[in-house]
Amino acid sequence: MQTSQKHKITGKCIDWPVQELESYCCPPNQSLEPCQSGSDDGSNSVQHSIPNLERYCTLDSSSSVQNSSSTASFSPDGSPVSQQNYTYPLDLHHSPENTCASPISGSCVIDNENDLGLMIRQLETAMLGIDSGDLDLHAIAASGRATEVSVEAERWKYMKEMIARGDLKELLFACAKAIESNDMYMADCLIAQLRQMVSVSGEPMQRLGAYMLEGLVARLASSGSSIYKALRCKEPASPELLSYMHILYEICPYFKFGYMSANGAIAEAMKEESRVHIIDFQIAQGSQWLTLINALAGRPGGPPSIRITGIDDPTSAFARGGGLEIVGQRLRKLAESCKVPFEFHAAAISGTEVQLENLGIQPGEAIAVNFAMMLHHMPDESVDTQNHRDRLLRLAKSLSPKVVTLVEQEANTNTSPFIPRFLETMGYFSSIFESIDVSMPREHKERINVEQHCLAREIVNIIACEGKERVERYELFGKWRSRFIMAGFTPSPLSPFVNATIKTLLQSYCDKYTLEERDGVLYLGWMDRAIIASCAWRC
Per the record, which residues fall in region VHIID (predicted)? Predict the structure, then answer.
């Protein structure tokens, strides 16, 4: 070893999650103590005893004179074969890049052999708690090499066993963990294996896995935002065909019944009003209002005059094959057939841009505000200092509405870190994919289109994107409740008649769909998983 060479020793942690984060991917009997911690200057300081260091860390030695390359492959029997020539020179002479956790000296830069001996004793004391002046440096280096090979072998052995088990959820989680830990070797191997296991026409978890895998690949490539935009739900060109989203509403009752409960709350609040103004902050195709117009047309004493303000992002016009005028024409045609006085006001702007003057408020109107599957797209305080999520609630409160309705996904993909968010996404969407499976054959082309264009883009966005690019930011109802109360609203229980009607209609679907009302909030779900929460508020 040349003492003139400078070497940097860093620790790579084999960081598997706590038992399930849960039961996924934890090798048996492995402690989860961290192997390294970052110091203020960005270096890594050793903080463990040698037994812990040998069991959980691999040491990479990089020299300013000689660089080594590393690849890994499997032998015919499946065991890992290392193709790297490992060297671990322990000459730290004049290396400003190395620090150690010495309680006496914060620097590992030495000028003579006496300093080297002192440094080693300090390191031994810090790591072992004993004075080990007789330890052989070459023995330590050899031990380090053996430890690295042993740890790597154990690691790849565990991955082989995990692949043999064929648990798709486990492998997806392991891949997410590898990507989070920047373990590219493990991530690449798992991605290659996962590609052989997922299928857009397979079982529910295989189909969901296909889109979650694309999200992971996009996260690696930092291309999640562009994929999200490319996968936006697009209707067929022919007006005779139902849109993919409409098909989703028909085969998946969560969204459809969520809208029904919101309409019921609005009808109940407006039963004595002659002039009704509904402000829909995400009107999309306007399908929600078809049933409400029909219902109000048969109201005793005659229908009220209805005015709907539809807010929409102009860049999403292709989801309807055109602008908001298409929605207005559709609703106007229905209202005329029902002899309901009707007016449509288009506000072709994004929710983040909406101001009071965009809403066309007129004196004497009874106002209903509808937030259906929209607020989770608005950046909150964790993303933007303007916090449009709460700003829109305050704007709605300033209108003194008779009722405000909220329909949102019952999940948390907003502020949770990547790994918990990944698990939440897996659990939430696996329920949706399972419920779709009972409604449409797996090989049905329309089912594949629905999942690809209307669900996959959300999955990719949640997994692959961060910051302002991550726009699919669901929140649990508890958080929405806090926001509404802070804005000055009070809960308004949903109509028992509407709830009973929805429960009756739900019986025509699979018996695994669930409907539960708690504290005035309606939860629609699949088995034991709530999917949609619907509620109403008043000033």
Answer: 245-310
Other Cβ atoms within 10 Å of 18 Cβ, number:
9
Q: Of 427, 456, 473, at which residue does a domain stop?
A: 473
The DSSP output letter for 303 is: P
In sign, the C-alpha dihedral spanning 431, 233, 387, 421 is positive
Length of the chain: 539
509 occurs within a structural domain: yes
Q: How far is CA 254 from the centre of its chain?
A: 20
**For residue 301, how far is the Cα from the chain centroid?**
49
**Among the listed residues 438, 271, 431, 278, the one whose alpha carbon sits nearest the alpha carbon of residue 342:** 278
Beta bridge partner(s), residue 72: 82
Q: Does the predicted model carry a pTM greater than 0.85?
A: no
Distance CA 413, CA 427 (A): 12
φ/ψ (deg, to 5) at 111:
-120, -10
- Which helix (H) or strand (E) covers residue 141, if one does? helix 137-165
Q: The tokens of 64 are what?
A: 């300013």
Instruction: For Cα atoms 461, 466, 469, give the angle at the middle one, nearest 5 degrees.
Output: 65
Number of DSSP helices (H) and strands (E) in the chain, helices first: 17, 15
Residues 454-488 have pLDDT tens digits of 899 899 999 999 998 999 999 999 999 999 999 99
H-only helix segments in 384-495: 388-398, 418-437, 445-454, 456-464, 477-487
Handedness of CA 80, 84, 85, 87 (dihedral sign): negative
Q: Which range marks the domain in which residue 199 is found? A: 159-234+413-473
Whether 451 and 515 map to the same domain: the answer is no
Structure tokens at 202: 């397979």
429-444 residue pLDDT tens: 999 999 999 888 877 8
d(C-alpha 435, C-alpha 253), whole Å? 9
* Torsion (CA) 35, 49, 46, 117 in degrees, nearest 10: -160
The answer to whether 291 touches 340, Cβ cutoff 8 Å, is: no
